[in-house]
């Protein structure tokens, strides 16, 4: 965490920048100022479709909050943040905001509930009374890239632009593709720290796990 002096300095610098940049950049600066004031960091979970991103976020939260499955599932970037009472806030591309119950999450953020994002959501924020968000870690689950749904890739790339750290999810089988390498480079450019997580390790023998980890390095 920055010291109070450093936080005040950063706040002032961001305030100066605010007046100098484009509206889109201004929105990013507003997000940064808000996270700085609340001592909150934003960790984005990214990767190709079906690598297990939403499953990992549920494991981090210790609760099955996000929908998961074997077909392309996540269609809208979903922010998990601390808040009570537990609820979700849907933000639409036209600027509308609506608070809804958590049980509505699958109808909003999944390809099945909201095909092609026909509801026109820009993102959904889930306010949860869970430990990691309460400690100041805001997690963002993103749609997978590279699936048959090109709009999922576009959504995921948009989400890449605002984060402090990234968890990039790979699996050993299939191994890292050229498209994943490009996405990983982009994630690294936008984040202060990038963690690479090799998922579905249970599908490999111990020797295969060692081989996959050495190759991914
Ligand atoms: N064997 C095994 N299966 C896993 C693991 N993690 C996730 N899965 C399974 O992989 C499938 C995909 O998981 P999701 O969490 O929906 O993957 P995702 O990356 O969020 O998928 P999209 O949102 O569609 O991009 C589900 O059937 C999960 O149960 C793991 O560590 N081991
Ligand atoms: Mg998902």
TrEMBL record:
CDD domains assigned: DLP_2 (cd09912)
UniProt entry keywords in alphabetical sequence: GTP-binding, Nucleotide-binding
Top-level taxon in the UniProt lineage: Bacteria
UniProt entry tagged with the keyword Oxidoreductase: no
Domain (Dynamin N-terminal): residue spans on this chain: 43-200
Coiled coil: none
Annotated Gene3D superfamilies: P-loop containing nucleotide triphosphate hydrolases
Keyword Glycoprotein found: no
Record-linked InterPro entries: Dynamin_N, P-loop_NTPase, Small_GTP-bd, TRAFAC_Dynamin-like_GTPase
NCBIfam families: small_GTP
Name used for this protein in its record: Dynamin N-terminal domain-containing protein
């Amino acid at each position: 965490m920055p010291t109070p002096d450093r936080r005040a300095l950063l706040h002032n610098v961001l305030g100066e920048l605010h007046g100098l940049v484009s509206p889109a950049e201004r929105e990013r600066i507003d997000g940064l100022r808000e996270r700085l004031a609340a001592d909150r960091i934003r960790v984005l979970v990214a990767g190709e479709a079906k690598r297990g991103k939403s499953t990992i976020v549920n494991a981090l939260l210790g609760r099955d909050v996000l929908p998961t499955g074997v077909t392309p599932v996540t269609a809208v970037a979903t922010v998990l943040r601390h808040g009570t009472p537990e609820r979700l806030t849907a933000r639409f591309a036209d600027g509308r905001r609506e608070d809804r119950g958590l049980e509505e999450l699958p109808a909003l953020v999944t390809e099945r509930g909201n095909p092609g994002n026909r509801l026109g959501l820009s993102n959904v924020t889930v306010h949860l009374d869970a430990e990691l968000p309460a400690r100041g870690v805001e997690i963002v689950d993103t749609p997978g890239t590279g699936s048959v749904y090109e709009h999922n890739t576009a959504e995921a790339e948009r989400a890449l632009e605002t984060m402090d750290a990234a968890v990039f999810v790979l699996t050993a089988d299939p191994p890292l593709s050229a498209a994943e390498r490009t996405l990983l480079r982009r994630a690294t450019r936008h984040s202060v720290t990038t963690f690479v997580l090799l998922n579905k390790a249970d599908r490999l023998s111990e020797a295969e796990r060692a081989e996959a980890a050495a190759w991914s390095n």
